[in-house]
Here is the input.
Amino acid sequence: MRLELRTATAEDTRAVGSAVGSLLRIGDAVALSGDLGAGKTTFVQGAARALGFAGHVVSPTFTLVREYRGRLPVFHVDVYRLERVQDVLDLDLDEMLSEGVVLVEWGDAVEGLLPEDHLSVALTSPGTDEARRLVLQGAGPSWEVRWSRLEDATAAWRAAA
Ligand code: ADP
Ligand code: MG
Here is the structure.
């Protein structure tokens, strides 16, 4: 399961985040990867909005985890500064997953620690303008069930094949 999207502006990336967010439920993990400035936090802003959180969403780079109380608890994790796998384990992702949804920035490093069922979102900046390329990959039966809904919800940003 793979979707390739293109967003022209930050608001587009927020809208894709919202489309994903509206499909999330307790126990879901989303791993976001991409260089600094790629738009990972921007994506989380949209997802948090769709999950009913109206407040400010900023990168938890220094706090590692921020929790937003929307319709569901949303845990926004940034593990960029963590150097050891143990530091990530200490965050107790399982506890967060039992309470709400977890979105992890710099997900590459932690993908092996996430449940088998998860969504990964890789963001890149292919040119010099504001456009971003987003590759969404779903893993596990729960994404199988939701995949056609995700395709429909993101159709407006589908990259030309
Ligand atoms: P990251 O969390 O990956 O470091 P941020 O989301 O914090 O990235 O920053 C992305 C920056 O790029 C923001 O300032 C955002 O406004 C800007 N931007 C411009 N175009 C886009 C786009 N298409 N998608 C996402 N962000 C964009
Ligand atoms: Mg960020």
Notes: The first strand starts at residue 2 and ends at 7.
